[in-house]
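[agent] plan:
  1. take the single chain provided in the ticket
  2. run structure prediction with default settings
  3. attach structure tokens to the ticket
  4. add a short note for the reviewer (M.T.)
[agent] executing step 1
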Amino acid sequence: QGQLVESGGGLVQPGGSLRLSCAASGFTLDDYAIGWFRQAPGKEREGISCISSSGSNTYYVDSVKGRFTISRDNAKNTVYLQMNSLKPEDTAVYYCATAAIGSCPLLLREYDYWGQGTQVTVSS
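[agent] step 2 finished; step 3 output follows
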């Protein structure tokens, strides 16, 4: 029974940084694109970034471009999200999810396996 586990969340001040990790167990990530998503209280889940299976293609929603960087280390079976210059509006539960294919899907519904999330709170 495979699992995805997010870690690295916490409380940071505005302008601070966090690195989130998405680690797989029970299966390997190297065949799959991985997306990062977030959900703030009372809001819908939002896709913010995706990386292709090889790591050669990355995508970001406009609100995080230039601040967040997605990467992967397939040898470690882990995907990362480096989050810099954090803002209060970045506060959310952050999730990673696998696509069924190696390229980044266009729609959230095309991600088929999800982790449990890690809380990121940006506050002074």
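[agent] step 4 note for reviewer: The two ends are 40 Å apart (CA to CA).
[agent] ticket updated
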